[in-house]
């Protein structure tokens, strides 16, 4: 029973570590594993309740703590499950863009499997992340159908490529926080008169093997959020953001930009890790302004990467307006300022 009690205490405390807002990966990891943590807590709750030799005060504290942790985490993730009631899924629209976005994994060389997914979905846009010069050459054949490209390859697992069937406008590659981490910006005409602005991101994650803290990732998301707040046009932000949607940073990103997460009420769409079903997290995201909506949304087949790709069909609502300027309270502004201060002091 001692081992069970120790495990229970760990899983009672760990879900609340991200609430400390400390940027070290140790404190942020609990955000990523909330789904797995809920499952383990439920198992512990049942096992402790059955095996406890007697219901002492300590046992009741453990059971109460486990139940509190389960409820706390369930509240955080529930709206992203398929059980959450969806708002109206479709609207009158006057055009759409289809996008296939995928972290292809630099070391993965199964180019044909990924090309097969491109052919299967036949999107207007293809976005690849972790694409090095090998990937650039390996899928070069798609440029016959996608002649308009933006290429930012590197050999450090942060390359990025965009392929488009139609001409794109205002294309740029920016290094917002780190010299090896590019982001791609462009505009794509959804009709002759209406264009959609895209921000494609792949910030570095907080982890023992990469950035020790989340400072760089958090700062990149806040920089983009501030930029979008000043724009009043149809906008999409997408990519492998190395964060889960229920974290405070991503929730703040959504609040600052007044953008919508199309997965709400549809399911988690956990994209990483493709090889281990029991350790999957929703790390690949798309957010859009309220004048847009996502119709079809699917996770691709496994094509050899550690991520699944995501396919979206993005529609522009008729007679819709954009409002990205949302009001932030004092706590919100303080939180954003702390993120930017951490980055400046790094």
Automatic annotation (TrEMBL):
Annotated TM spans: 6-26, 33-52, 58-78
By its UniProt entry, which Pfam families does this protein fall under? Exo_endo_phos
Domain named Endonuclease/exonuclease/phosphatase is located at: 102-307
The answer to whether keyword Transmembrane helix applies is: yes
Extract the InterPro entries matched here: Endo/exonu/phosph_ase_sf, Endo/exonuclease/phosphatase
- This protein's record includes keyword Membrane: yes
Output the Gene Ontology terms for molecular function.
endonuclease activity
Keywords attached to this entry = Endonuclease, Hydrolase, Membrane, Nuclease, Transmembrane, Transmembrane helix
> Which Gene3D superfamilies would you find in this protein's record?
Endonuclease/exonuclease/phosphatase
Protein name (database record): Endonuclease/exonuclease/phosphatase family protein
């Amino acid at each position: 029973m001692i081992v069970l009690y120790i495990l229970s205490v760990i899983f009672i405390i760990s879900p609340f570590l991200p609430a400390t807002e400390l940027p070290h990966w140790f404190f942020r990891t609990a955000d990523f594993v909330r789904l797995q943590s809920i499952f383990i807590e439920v198992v512990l709750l049942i096992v402790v309740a059955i095996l406890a030799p007697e219901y002492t005060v300590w046992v009741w504290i453990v059971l109460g703590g486990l139940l509190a942790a389960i409820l706390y985490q369930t509240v955080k993730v529930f709206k992203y499950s398929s059980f959450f009631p969806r708002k109206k899924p479709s609207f009158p629209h006057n055009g759409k863009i289809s996008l296939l976005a995928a972290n292809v994994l630099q070391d993965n060389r199964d180019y044909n499997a990924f090309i097969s997914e491109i052919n299967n979905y036949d999107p207007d846009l293809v976005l690849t992340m972790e694409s090095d010069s090998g990937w650039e050459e390996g899928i070069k054949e798609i440029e016959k159908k996608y002649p308009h490209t933006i290429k930012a390859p590197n050999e450090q697992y942060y390359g990025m490529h965009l392929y488009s069937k139609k001409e794109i406008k205002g294309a740029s590659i920016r290094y917002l926080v780190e010299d090896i981490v590019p982001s791609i910006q462009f505009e794509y005409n959804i009709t002759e008169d209406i264009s959609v602005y895209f921000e494609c991101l792949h910030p570095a994650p907080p982890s023992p093997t990469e950035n020790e803290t989340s400072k760089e990732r958090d700062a990149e998301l806040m920089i983009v959020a501030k930029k979008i707040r000043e724009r009043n046009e149809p906008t999409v932000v997408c990519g492998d953001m190395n964060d889960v949607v229920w974290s405070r940073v991503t929730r703040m990103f959504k609040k600052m930009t007044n953008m919508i997460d199309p997965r709400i009420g549809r399911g988690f769409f956990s994209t990483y890790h493709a090889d281990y079903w029991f350790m999957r997290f929703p790390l690949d995201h798309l957010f859009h302004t309220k004048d847009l909506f996502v119709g079809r949304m699917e996770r691709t087949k496994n094509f050899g990467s550690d991520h699944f790709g995501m396919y979206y069909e993005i529609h522009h609502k008729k007679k819709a307006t954009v409002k990205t300027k949302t009001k932030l309270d004092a706590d919100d502004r303080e939180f954003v300022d702390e993120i930017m201060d951490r980055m400046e002091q790094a």
